[in-house]
Design a protein that fits this description.
- The longest helix is centred in the last third of the chain and has 24 residues, at 332-355.
- Strands 7-6-5-18-17-16-15-14 form an eight-stranded antiparallel sheet, with no helix packed on it. A seven-stranded antiparallel sheet has the order 13-12-11-10-9-8-19, with no helix packed on it. It has a three-stranded mixed sheet with strand order 3-4-22.
- Among the domains are: 70-261, no CATH class; 281-356, no CATH class.
- A hairpin with a 4-residue loop joins strand 16 and strand 17.
- The chain has six helices and 22 strands.
- Helix 4 (281-291) crosses helix 5 (307-328) and helix 5 (307-328) packs antiparallel against helix 6 (332-355).
- The chain is 19% helix and 28% strand.
- The radius of gyration is 21 Å and the shape is globular.
- It starts with 15 loop residues before the first helix and ends in a 35-residue tail after the last strand.
Length: 393
Amino acid sequence: MTTPNDFSYHNHSYFTDKYFIYHETSAPKTTCIFGEESYNEGETVPLLCYHIICTSGIWVHTGMVNNRCRKARVYWDPHVKTFDNKHYNYHKPCNFSLVQPGLIQTPKYGVYAQFAECIGLGTCIEKIVFKDNNNTVITISVRNKEELTVFLNGKEFPVSSDTPSFMVQDGVQHPVLAWSQTGSNSRLLFAGSSNLVLEVSKNHVFLWLHPSLTDHYGLCGTSNGVQDDEFTTRSGNVVNSLTSFADSWMTDTQTSPECLTSQRFKRNIILNETGLCTLGNDTLLDLEAICRQKVPVVQHSGQVVEAAEVNALMEACTFDLCLLYSNTGGNMTAIEEYIDTVIADVVVRIIEIEADLIDVESLTTIAPPNTTIARGRPKRRRTYLKIEQKVYL
């Protein structure tokens, strides 16, 4: 059975007309290509959550995200926020499906995560696999935590551009836009013809789904606006057991020997019930106070943060510091470094994203000069922003 760890790659030339566009068949300067569709000047991709605009024949990312899209994230050691805003922790060094269409083991596309042991007995993201189609499989390795390494169909691939660019390998252009954003929280962004979009850094992966994309499942939930069925297993049953839910989304082949021998459970770290965090309440309160330095209370830098979001971040931060404290013998230097890098990275990015949400449907749209809308194509918004004011984050 083929798994996200070992995809087979078909003959690219056979799929050229349907899946790929070669440089020799480039469209006119004012037309942009995405997947199997062409877009005119000013048009956007309807179901893509990143707000990108066809501008003079290239895709320009405004830095904005469609606020109608649902966002999930996996971050730190690892903690999960589902598409419908359910928070939980699960620590098992195995390979899981984060999001995919349907319930089967071999979907047409999907995003997968390999977790590995770190910070003592905790787990962290080791690898992210983004399968956009049977011929485009992107692997992002975050194991060393120093820099991200990207592989396209098993070959290392440099993502160096800060503008959305199609991934080209061996003369073949794959239907995935990739670009990087550097700074204090450097990250890679991907937008595929499957309409999945994701952002990956050393400390997190964010995923977005348009609400029109239904019947998606995995560790990140159902993305249907209903929180009660977030724990839908691969068999289609809704369960209360976190272990039953999460384990059902393991892929059918596990390469990590740690996976077969691990026994991990959900923990309530504040009440200090059974689990990996066994510190006393006084120490936990001290660690919680340290977390409060980086996690906003209700408002930060002008952006309002929901109470549920703050509570989830505080619990996740305190849990991570608990593991780090236990694993380093209470080394406060290590804790301060973790707070200033790993914790701060995700918190800052969450706040930035809230500031970059935009109601795409409410934007004023006009017809660009000297262009017409082709008949019979899906309706697309032609969006004109003052993009010279803000093109990139």
